[in-house]
Write a structure and sequence with these properties.
The complex is a heterodimer of chains A (about 525) and B (about 325). Chain A starts with 6 loop residues before the first helix and ends in a 12-residue tail after the last helix. In chain A, α15 runs parallel beside α16. Chain A has helices at about 5-10, 65-70, 95-100, 115-120, 130-150, 165-175, 195-210, 220-225, 250-255, 315-325, 350-355, 365-370, 375-380, 395-410, 425-440, 455-470, 485-490, 515-520, and strands at about 25-35, 35-45, 50-55, 80-85, 85, 100-105, 180-185, 210-215, 230-235, 235-245, 275-285, 290-300, 305-310, 330-335, 340, 355-360, 445-450, 475-480, 495-500, 500-505. Chain A is α/β, with parallel strands linked by helices and about 525 residues long. Chain B has about 325 residues and is an all-alpha fold. Chain B has a domain at about 20-240. Chain B is built from 13 helices and 2 strands, in the order ααααααααααααββα. In chain B, β1 (about 280) and β2 form a beta hairpin. Classes of the chains: A alpha/beta (about 525), B mainly alpha (about 325). The interface between A and B is medium-sized, with 33 and 23 residues. Chain A: It holds the Pfam family ABC_tran. Chain A: Keywords: ATP-binding, Cell membrane, Membrane, Nucleotide-binding, Repeat, Sugar transport, Translocase, Transport.
C-alpha cells in the first residue's frame, strides 16, 4: 500500500506559481470502444493546474467514459495520459490514486453503516491494526477540515448524514489520499440550491489551495458559475474548448446539441379557466405513521401550469401518487371537475384515467414503463383496455403498432422502431414515449413528475414545449420538479413543499432561485399571501 | 436440589460440546457473508472436512495431520464456491447447495471405495483423536463445593478444539472490528463499489474471506469426526451447518451474539437428551419427538419476531460487477 499522504511533502518543494508549469492533466487522442460503439473518439484535453475545468455534454456524449478512463475503471484503447507533464499509465483506481487523482462519483461511494473516519481511511489505512490508523486518520482529517473549511463530524455514520455532507466526506476521502486533481461527476444532481452554493464555495477554496478540479455536468448554469475553462463533448468527441469568461450559455448549448437550442420557453400569458382540481386538506400518512402529505390545499385551473418546487422527498411524490389514484387518501380530499374524492373512497389509477387525468410518473423506469417490453407495448400501458387496441380476445397487434409509430413520429422518438425493447431507448426518448402516451389523449388534468430527469438538453426543449402547448390547449397541468430552472420557466404559479406541507406560493414572475431555495429549506421570511 | 444443580451443570457441559461445531461454522459463515458472499454450503464444507479428517486419522494415526487435511479440503471447497460466485458471478445459493449435495454423495462414495465399510471410516484410536484435556488440579478440587464441579466439569475435561472454538470468537471479533482486513471486509459486504474505488480489489478481499471461512469449517468438521466421535458416519453433520447459519443470522452477523445463539441451540439440544423420558405431572412422559423438535420450533418463533429485523450486509448475495 502506498503512503496515502504524499501531498504535504510534494507540495512543499514545488514553486507555487511556476510560469510555464505543464498541464495538470493532458489527454492525447484517447480512444475507447465498447463493441461497435465508439464512446471516445480521439479525445484531447488539457487542464491547467489550479483551475476549475468544466466538461459539459449531453448524456451519452462520452464524459463519464473519459473520466472513468482517467480514474482507471477502463483502459483506453489508444492514446496517452499525462499527469503533471509525466506520461502515466492508469490501469486501476489504485494507479489513479497514486497519480494524485481523486474522484467524487455521482453516486457516492460510501459505506453507510460506517463512521466518517472509517470511510475516509478505507483503503488508505496506515497499518494492519485499526487503533493506530484511526488515530492517524482523525488527526489528518482535522487538519484537512481546518485547511479546507470542510466541516464534518468524524464519528457520524455516513449513511445518516445529509447528502451535502456525504459529498464533503467524498471530497475529504480524495484529499486524504493526497489528491491534487479532483474529478466531480455531476456533483449537484442531489443537492439543494443552498448545498450547491456551499459546494461551489468549497471548490473555490480548493482551487485557492492549488487543487485542480474537473467538473462534469450537463447544467450550463453551473459551468458559467464556477469554472475557469470549459470543454464541450458531443457524440464521443471533444467539440470545443473555451475560456468560460469568453463564452455564453447559448453558445455552449448549441455546441452540446449541435444545433440552436431555445433555452427559455416562449409562452403566452395563461388563459386560466374553470377550476379543474381543487385539493382540500389532503393528507397521507405512511405505514410508519409519518405524515408524508400534510393538510395540503390548492387549486389548479384549466389552462394554467402550477409548479411544485421542493427538495426531493418532501411529499411531492406522494402528492402525485394521491392525485393519480395510486395511494389511498388518509384524510381530507380533492375534487376533480366536480367529482369528490376523499378518505375511504377507494381510488384506482384506471378510474382516474377514465376521468381524463394523465400521469407522467416521476420515475419512468419504475412506474412509467416496462423495460423489457417492446416500445409499442410500453406506449399503451394503462390504456391497454381501450377498444382501439383490443379485439374480442386478443390484442390487436397491428393497431398497437400503428398507434406507436404515429406517436413516435409526432414526438420525434428515435429510433422510430415500435418493436425495439424499451430499455434500448435513451432516457430522453423513453420519456418522450411516456409523454406521447399520456398527452395524446387530451387529458383535462396532466400530472407531471420530473419530466426531464436524465433527459438530454435537446429533448428537454421538446418536452417543455409540449407541456406548454397542453396548457394552451386548455388542460390543467400540475408539475412537480426538483429542477428550479424548470419550475420557474414552465409554471404560472409556484407552490413550495417542505415536509409534506405547502409552505409558500409565488407567482412565476416574482420567483427567483434564492427565494425559492430559502422556501424549500423552510427558511424564508414570512410572506403575505402564503398558502397552506 | 443438589441433584438438579448437578444435572444443570452437566447440561451446560454438554452444551459446550454440542455448540462447538456450531460456533466454528457460524464464525465461518460470518466471514463469508460479511464479505458479501452468501454461504449456504457451510454444511457441505463441514461434512467434507469431517470425512477428510477421519480418513487421514485412520490412515496416518495423526490427529494433527487429520486437522490439516480437514482444513485443506474445506478451504478447497470454499475456493470452489468463490470461483463460481466471485470470479464467474454465479448464483451463491445454487453454488452452496451444489456443494452440499456433491459432498453428501462424494463422501459416501469415497468412503466405500477406500474403506469398504458402507461409507463409514474405520474408527480411530484415541492417539489419532483430539481427546479431553484434564486441567491441572481438576481431580483435587472436584470435591470443593460449587467451585470444584465448575472447574473440573465445566472448564476442564474438554478436547482442544472446544477451547479453540471459544477462542475463535473474540479473535473473530478482533479481526472484524479492529484490523484493516476487518474494516475492508465489512465495507466490501456493504458497498463493494466503495472498496473498488478506494483502489482495493473486491475479488481479492472476497477470496480471502472464503479462505477464512474454509479454515473454520475445516476445524468444525474435524471436531465432529475425530474429537466428538471417532469415525466418519454418512451425513454426520445432520443439518448443523444450517443451524449455524441460522445462529449467525440471529446474531445479526456479529460474533458474540452469534456465539450466544449457538450456545442456545446447543443448550436446547443438551437438555433435549436429558428430558427424554422425564415424567411431567398430568401429561406424562414428554414425547421425544417434541423435545427434538424444540430447537427448530424455537428457530421459527425467534425468526418470526423476537429478535427484531435482521439486517444482512447490503451487498450480500450480489455478485460484484464493475459498473461503467
Amino acid at each position: 500500500m502506498s503512503d496515502p499522504r504524499p501531498r504535504q511533502q510534494d507540495g512543499a518543494d514545488r514553486p507555487a506559481s511556476e510560469a510555464q508549469s505543464p498541464p495538470a492533466i493532458e489527454l492525447r487522442d484517447i480512444d475507447k470502444s465498447f463493441g461497435p460503439v465508439r464512446a471516445n473518439k480521439n479525445v484531447c484535453l488539457s487542464v491547467r493546474p489550479g483551475a476549475i475545468h468544466g466538461i459539459i455534454g449531453e448524456n451519452g456524449a462520452g464524459k463519464s467514459t473519459l473520466m472513468s478512463i482517467l480514474y482507471g475503471f477502463y483502459e483506453a484503447d489508444r492514446g496517452e495520459i499525462l499527469i503533471g507533464g509525466k506520461q502515466t499509465r492508469i490501469r486501476s483506481s489504485r494507479d489513479a490514486i497514486a497519480a494524485g487523482i481523486g474522484m467524487v462519483h455521482q453516486h457516492f461511494m460510501l459505506v453507510d453503516n460506517m463512521s466518517v473516519v472509517e470511510n475516509i481511511m478505507l483503503g488508505a489505512e496506515s497499518g494492519a491494526i485499526l487503533t493506530s490508523s484511526v488515530a492517524a486518520a482523525r488527526a489528518e482529517l482535522e487538519r484537512l477540515e481546518r485547511d479546507y473549511n470542510l466541516d464534518v463530524d468524524p464519528d457520524a455514520l455516513a449513511g445518516e448524514l445529509p447528502v451535502g455532507q456525504q459529498q464533503r466526506v467524498e471530497i475529504l476521502k480524495a484529499l486524504y489520499r493526497g489528491a491534487e486533481i479532483l474529478i466531480l461527476d455531476e456533483p449537484t444532481g442531489v443537492l439543494t440550491p443552498q448545498e450547491t452554493e456551499q459546494l461551489f464555495r468549497i471548490l473555490d477554496s480548493l482551487r485557492k489551495q492549488g487543487v485542480t478540479i474537473v467538473l462534469i455536468t450537463h447544467k450550463l448554469r453551473e459551468i458559467m458559475a464556477v469554472t475557469d475553462d470549459v470543454s464541450v463533448m458531443r457524440g464521443g468527441e471533444m467539440i470545443a474548448h473555451r475560456s468560460t469568461a469568453e463564452t455564453s450559455k447559448e453558445e455552449l448549448a448549441e455546441l452540446m446539441v449541435g444545433r440552436k437550442v431555445l433555452l427559455s420557453i416562449d409562452k403566452q400569458a395563461p388563459q386560466a379557466g374553470a377550476t379543474v382540481l381543487a385539493v382540500e386538506d389532503l393528507s397521507f400518512v405512511d405505514r410508519a405513521g409519518v405524515p408524508r402529505v400534510d393538510k395540503v390545499s390548492f387549486a389548479v385551473r384549466a389552462g394554467e401550469i402550477v409548479g411544485i418546487a421542493g427538495v426531493s422527498g418532501n411529499g411531492q411524490s406522494e402528492l402525485l401518487e394521491l392525485l393519480s389514484g395510486i395511494k389511498p387518501i388518509t384524510s381530507g380530499g380533492f375534487s376533480l371537475m366536480g367529482e369528490r374524492f376523499s378518505a375511504g373512497r377507494s381510488l384506482d389509477p384506471a378510474a382516474m384515467r377514465d376521468l381524463k387525468v394523465a400521469h407522467v410518473p416521476e420515475d419512468r423506469l419504475r412506474s412509467g414503463l416496462v423495460r423489457t417490453f417492446a416500445a409499442e407495448e410500453s406506449a399503451i400501458l394503462g390504456y391497454h383496455r381501450d377498444p382501439a387496441y383490443t379485439g374480442r380476445i386478443f390484442m390487436d397487434r397491428d393497431a398497437i403498432q400503428q398507434d406507436c409509430a404515429r406517436k413516435m413520429a409526432d414526438f420525434d422518438v428515435r429510433p422510430q422502431n415500435p418493436n425495439l425493447k424499451t430499455a434500448n431507448f435513451s432516457g430522453g426518448n423513453q420519456q418522450k414515449l411516456v409523454l406521447a402516451r399520456e398527452i395524446s389523449r387530451d387529458p383535462r388534468l396532466l400530472l407531471v413528475g420530473q419530466p426531464t430527469r436524465g433527459v438530454d438538453i435537446g429533448a428537454i426543449e421538446f418536452i417543455h414545449r409540449n407541456i406548454v402547448s397542453m396548457r394552451d390547449a386548455g388542460s390543467a397541468v400540475l408539475l412537480v420538479s426538483v429542477e428550479l430552472d424548470e419550475i420557474m420557466s414552465l409554471s404560472d404559479r409556484i407552490l413550495v413543499m417542505f415536509e409534506g406541507r405547502i409552505v409558500g406560493e409565488v407567482p412565476a414572475h416574482e420567483a427567483n432561485e434564492r427565494l425559492l431555495g430559502l422556501m424549500m429549506a423552510n427558511a424564508a421570511p414570512e410572506r403575505s399571501g402564503v398558502a397552506g | 436440589m443438589d441433584d438438579l444443580l448437578f444435572n444443570l451443570l452437566l447440561s451446560v457441559d454438554a452444551t459446550f460440546r454440542v455448540a462447538t461445531p456450531l460456533i466454528l461454522c457460524a464464525m465461518a459463515g460470518l466471514f463469508s457473508e460479511r464479505s458479501g458472499v452468501v454461504d449456504i454450503g457451510l454444511e457441505g464444507k463441514m461434512l467434507a472436512a469431517a470425512f477428510a479428517a477421519a480418513a487421514v486419522a485412520a490412515v496416518t494415526g495423526s490427529a494433527w495431520l487429520a486437522l490439516a487435511a480437514g482444513m485443506a479440503v474445506s478451504v478447497g471447497l470454499a475456493l470452489l464456491h468463490g470461483f463460481a460466485c466471485i470470479t464467474h458471478r454465479g448464483d451463491q445459493v445454487v453454488s452452496g447447495v451444489a456443494i452440499n449435495i456433491l459432498v453428501s454423495g462424494l463422501t459416501v462414495v469415497l468412503g466405500i471405495a477406500w474403506f469398504a465399510r458402507g461409507g463409514q471410516t474405520p474408527s480411530v484410536s484415541n492417539e489419532a483423536r483430539f481427546t479431553p484435556i484434564t486441567w491441572p488440579g481438576a481431580e483435587a478440587v472436584a470435591d470443593v463445593p460449587i467451585i470444584g464441579p465448575l472447574y473440573s466439569e465445566l472448564l476442564s475435561g474438554h478436547n482442544l478444539l472446544v477451547y479453540v472454538a471459544f477462542l475463535i470468537v473474540p479473535l473473530t471479533w478482533w479481526v472484524v472490528y479492529r484490523t484493516r482486513f476487518g474494516l475492508r471486509l465489512r465495507a466490501v459486504g456493504e458497498n463493494p463499489n466503495a472498496v473498488d474505488t478506494a483502489g482495493i480489489s473486491v475479488s481479492g478481499l472476497r477470496y480471502r474471506a472464503m479462505i477464512c471461512c474454509g479454515l473454520l469449517c475445516g476445524i468444525a468438521g474435524t471436531y465432529l469426526s475425530i474429537a466428538q466421535n471417532a469415525a466418519f458416519v454418512r451425513d454426520m453433520t445432520a443439518g448443523q451447518g444450517y443451524i449455524a447459519l441460522a445462529a449467525m443470522i440471529f446474531g445479526k452477523w456479529r460474533p458474540v451474539p452469534a456465539m450466544l445463539a449457538c450456545l442456545m441451540f446447543g443448550f436446547l439440544d443438551a437438555i433435549a437428551i436429558r428430558l427424554q423420558g422425564v415424567e411431567v405431572p398430568v401429561i406424562g412422559p414428554i414425547p421425544v419427538q417434541l423435545i427434538q423438535a424444540l430447537p427448530y420450533v424455537l428457530t421459527v418463533v425467534l425468526l418470526a419476531g423476537f429478535i427484531g429485523r435482521a439486517v444482512a450486509p447490503k451487498a450480500s448475495g450480489i455478485p460484484y460487477v464493475k459498473e461503467r
